[in-house]
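Hi L., both proteins are below.
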Amino acid sequence: MAVETRTKVLLKILIGAAWIDGSIQIEERQYLRKLAQEQGLADDPELKPFLYELVQVKPAQCYQWIDEYLGKPDAKRCSDLLEAISGLIYSDGNVEVEEAKLLNRIQEIEATCSISQPNTKAILSSIQGLYRNWLKQLS
């Protein structure tokens, strides 16, 4: 997958992740639009309907985009995806159940890959701690 295409698919995944709980929060909307602008994708004809909430992304579509992005998963790609989605999810200061499930699924995929970089482990541990705290608050 070309870098430009990978960036576009990652942005689609983030849009899908914002929709995963059924609605996009104001902070998530701002985060996505800023990211799209920074990546030069704000006016992309394929992304525009999703980015400007003209079309809702269903969870199944989000998971399909994740599968497309990961292909044959490796630790680096999983870690990058987990970090990107976490940034979006935590942008509104609230983790919904569906968002937590999404993070958990990516963590499970990542667990099947070998992680050799200490920094990746530290990032993952930090995200998992935040995730567990939010799950406790939701229960």
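That was the first. Here is the second:
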Amino acid sequence: MTCVTVNMNGQQTPAPGSGGEGPDRRSSRIALAVAVPLSVFLAGVLCLATVIALTMLVTRAPESGTGEGAPTAVESEEPRGEQEPEEESGPGPDSQTRSSEEGASGGTGQPAPEVPPSAYDGTSTWSGDFRVECETAYTDTTITDGMGTSQAAPDGSEFHIYRLHVTNEGDVPDLFDNAGTTATTTDGREFTNDEEAEWTVAWDYFWEDIDPGQTVTTYVVLTAPEGTQFAEVRIGGDAVLEPRT
């Protein structure tokens, strides 16, 4: 039940404590209604600003690592321990095969060129004051001096015979000496001249000096397995006689 007071003008006003609301309470409720959404809005804005700030901080952190003074990859690596030496293995069958092939080809991997004895026909060299010309070169299993003296090569071998014209181009008589003549095969082996065979075929050319301007004919003989080919011949060990290419 509400109490009503009638004033002198006949207007009715609610009595104090009768349950009616005054202007102050309505203003407080309005202020509260406005303050709550505003607080929620400001809290949302603050959270959004915090998230943006954290995102920018995380994004810029890796970039700062590339600036001046950042540790390099080498500095960041942990020290490595001493490496154990690799085990050495001996040459296998394949390496031995390659070595033999390289020897036969001069180390180029290509087949050695064919050098028949006739490749020396017409070639020449110098030994001191002597001009040495190879008239012809050939192989045979028997040699002879044409006067009944002969010699046969051992089984599986043959003689490499070089018929030479030797001219003394110097000013004084001199002895031509082919001792120490060597020949190198196309697969790298070396043979020395066969003095016994040379004595058999050309014994009469080793006795006297050759006068200046004089030319004599003599021989160089080497004994080698059948099929051997020589890449060069060194008359007296130093005058190189090379085949025609």
